[in-house]
Amino acid sequence: MHDDVTDAPDSLDPRFDPELLAGGDERNVVDEFRFWTVEAIRDELDARAAAVAATDGAELQIAIENWGHDFNIGSVVRTANAMGVRRVHIVGRRRWNKRGAMVTDRYLHVHHHDDVASLVSFADERSLAMVGIDNVPGSEAIEDWQPPARALFVFGEESAGLSDEARAVSSTIRHISQFGSTRSINAGAAAAIAMYHWRSRAATSNGPSRNS
After folding, report:
1. Can you list the residues of the chain whose pLDDT is less than 70?
2. In the chain, where are the structural domains located?
3. For burial by CB atoms within 10 Å, which of 18, 64, 95, 159 has the most?
4. Tens-place pLDDT, residues 48-98
5. Using CA atoms in the order 52, 101, 91, 54, what is the torsion angle rounded to 10 degrees?
6. Superfamily of domain 57-201
């Protein structure tokens, strides 16, 4: 985040937001997108994801079950933004705690599904393999796994994990190997590891990361 708000570019670029140019941009965005409108950033990220899909046939979407108003959803959405995921699905309750998202949900597309069956229909229509992420009996380690190029990762709630319905429709369920005493890791941390694993294994034309 930038404290100096006096370095706005002198440009007529239509992607720039006049209010941000006048008052400064203190949003949590990489330098490349400073002073851009929300719509311009979203469109650019959509275009980049489409280019990866055209080159590799690769696309990752994620779904988060929200039966009990899970506070970790915002963190998962923020990570999805960082990993270039363009579509996030909330399954169950429509309302979710956005505080942890740090407004990153504005730069991607959030869809709601009343139940798992609706999510399955969406995935089938778009040829996305549904992959459950949870450390349940019968799950397999994610580390050496080659994820499908077109995937929909499904994450359960922090306390309950994946619902029985979500487990039943997953083509595979993967867990993150642990080496300590805790039974599970934070859902947001697990989601970050899983999304990064897909990004590094399935999307071979990632291009340079943007960490500025």
Report:
1. 1-8, 10-11, 69-71, 204-212
2. 57-201
3. 64
4. 999 999 988 999 999 999 877 666 899 999 999 999 999 999 999 988 888
5. -10
6. SPOUT methyltransferase, trefoil knot domain (3.40.1280.10)
Q: Is the pTM for the entire model greater than 0.70?
A: yes
Is residue 100 within 8 A of residue 188, CB to CB? The reply is yes
Strands (E), 102-175: 109-113, 129-133, 140-141, 150-155, 172-175
Q: Where are the alpha helices (DSSP H) in 71-151?
A: 73-82, 116-125
Q: Can you read off the two tokens belonging to residue 187?
A: 């859902």
d(CA 77, CA 80): 5
> Pairing state of beta strands 140-141 and 87-92?
unpaired
